[in-house]
Fold this sequence. Notes:
Elements: H1 2-7, E1 25-34, E2 38-47, E3 55-65, E4 72-81, E5 86-89
Antiparallel strand pairs: 1-2, 2-3, 3-4, 4-5
Amino acid sequence: xxxxxCYKDIVILSVEIEPVLISSEINIITQNxxxxxxxxxxxxxFEDLNYRLPSVNYTVTLTNNFNNPKWSxxxxxxxxxxxxxxxxxx
Length: 90
C-alpha cells in the first residue's frame, strides 16, 4: 500500500521537440595560470538556443602540477541545467 501512494506522486513529463535545421551553441572557455603550479579552467556553454529546451553547461577544473613534471592532480565540477532536469558531478 505504501508503494501505491508513492507511485501516484511520480509525474511523467513528455515533451515533443520540433526538428530544427540549425542548432546553435555558444561556448566561453577561460584558462588562468596562477601561483606557478596551478591552473584554473572554466567552460560555459549554451546549447540549443533555438529549441524550446535550451541548456546551460558549466565545468570548472583546478589542476596542480607537482615539482616532479611526471605527476599532476586535478579536481573537476560539472553542472548541466535545462527545463527538464538539472545535474551536477564532482
